[in-house]
Design goal:
The protein is an alpha+beta fold. The protein contains twelve helices and twelve strands. It folds into four domains: 66 residues; 92 residues, Beta-Lactamase, CATH 3.30.450; 74 residues; 178 residues, Histidine kinase-like ATPase, C-terminal domain (Heat Shock Protein 90), CATH 3.30.565.10. The C terminus is likely disordered.
């Protein structure tokens, strides 16, 4: 019997909890010991099975939680009681352009310094949720995140924190544009009415009284010309206000993009014959499903900006021997390749990009994205609407505007159009076609 107990104990120590000892042929005391041994073994086995079942449930819940977090578009980061990262979801890494899985164990303040202040407030007052707009700089671009931090409690004790955030950059930009559109519409209405009579009056004074004024006619002529010139400048400004406030609906059709670019270059070259224009277009014309008028307008704005930047830079640096240069090219996206060796991800197949480069003064290094906001300009005579209009045109085409500086100096601007079907989807989702589809669907459901 004792040998059986020793052998069974060894089996248990090796993890076999199913072993039992015989209690029938043992003396009374050994039989009682054997029964107690078997009872202990049974309890150990039940406890082990209970722990395994509990661990299995915990693992299933953890996988379920991770699956849910993976499908959430907002960023979610789980912190322990000390503020250390232990569970980030994929969206958090994507929104922050950082692999947070590699930062597990670090404090949130070290991993994302911009959120350190908000976390400190949450730790000081864990009884309430804390929310704030946080600006983060990722890959040279600023993004505005709406961040919320709430404490996780168990029996009144803080056991961790949950950080949730989403990128509201585009939302805030859209709100600002809507507000500025209303302002522009009101300004245009108030200013435009008196401009025409002012200009006509100045022209009439000049025409009728110039020959009659004998004392200092030069001053009279200079003043009337100044009035007329300034009124014309105001007219152009009002026209830009009106254009920005009332961007027309897209009228999409199959267009020859190469020809649109050639026409825009020809127009600007006539305005600035002293600038060298270099055009690099594919041998076969590129076609694009777009709004001809709006794309032409976007190109004209960008080429105009480039010409003004080049001219201003040469005047400021007094480089009389240098000549302004503007380059325009069209490229089409090909999967699994890199752009120009700069480590940028390749465009999707079917994507079309128009690149405009100049040798002007370039773009500011910080807050570059602010240049696409209404009424933000780096030029003394600029209205700050050119790039805002271009960005709106690209958004309407489901594309985007990219701003950069050339390594050798000057600015580099890209208009990136998605594949044709995505432009069509943009129109359908927001226009008459999309509304017709919804109406048809509702009628089908009723029938």
């Amino acid at each position: 019997p004792i040998s059986s107990l020793i052998a069974a104990s060894k089996s248990i120590s090796e993890g076999d909890l199913s072993v039992r000892v015989d209690t029938t042929e043992s003396p009374d005391e050994l039989s009682a010991l054997s029964r107690a041994f078997n009872s202990m073994t049974e309890q150990l086995k039940n406890t082990q099975e209970g722990l395994m079942d509990a661990n299995r449930q915990i693992d299933e819940r953890r996988r379920f939680t991770e699956t849910v977090l993976t499908g959430v578009s907002a960023g979610v980061i789980g912190l322990d009681a000390k503020g250390n990262i232990y569970l980030p979801n994929r969206s958090a890494s994507e929104l922050l352009a950082t692999d947070l899985d590699k930062l597990i164990g670090q404090t949130l303040g070290d991993a994302i310094p911009e959120m350190a202040s908000l976390l400190s407030k949450a730790m000081e007052r864990p009884g309430q949720s804390h929310q704030a707009e946080v600006k983060v700089n990722r890959d040279g671009q600023y993004h505005t995140l709406m961040v919320s931090i709430a404490a996780e409690r168990l029996e009144g004790k803080v056991i961790g924190y949950v950080v949730t955030f989403d990128d509201v950059t585009e939302l805030l930009s859209a709100q600002r544009k809507a507000a500025w559109s209303d302002v522009a519409r009101r300004i245009a209405h108030e200013i435009k009415n008196p401009l025409t009579p002012i200009q006509l009056s100045a022209e009439r004074l000049k025409r009728k009284y110039l020959d009659e004024i004998k004392s200092d006619p030069e001053t009279f002529l200079s003043c009337t010309d100044t009035i007329i010139r300034q009124v014309e400048d105001l007219h152009r400004m009002v026209d830009e206000f009106s254009s920005f406030a009332r961007m027309p609906q897209l009228s999409l059709s199959d267009e020859n993009l190469s020809e649109i670019c050639r026409q825009a270059i020809s127009l600007e070259h006539n305005r600035h014959p002293d600038i060298d224009y270099d055009v690099n277009l594919p041998d076969q014309d590129i076609r694009l499903y777009c709004d001809h008028r709006q794309v032409s307008r976007a190109l004209t704005n960008l080429l105009k900006n480039a010409a003004e930047a080049v001219t201003g830079h040469l005047e400021n640096t007094k480089k009389t021997t240098s000549k302004g240069r503007i380059h325009l090219s069209i490229t089409t996206g090909i999967k699994n390749e890199k752009e120009g060796g700069r480590g940028m991800a390749a465009m999707d197949e079917g994507t079309i990009s128009i690149l405009i480069k100049d040798n002007g003064s370039g773009l500011p290094g910080e807050n570059r994205e602010d240049l696409t906001e209404p009424y933000v300009t780096t030029r003394t005579k600029g209205t700050g609407l050119g790039l805002a209009i271009v960005k709106k045109i690209m958004e309407d085409h489901n594309g985007h505007l990219s701003l950069d500086n050339n390594p050798g100096g000057g600015a580099s601007v890209s208009l990136v159009f998605p594949p044709m079907e995505k432009i069509a989807d943009k129109k359908e989702n927001g226009g008459e076609v999309g509304a017709m589809k919804v109406a048809t669907s509702l009628l089908a459901q009723k029938s």
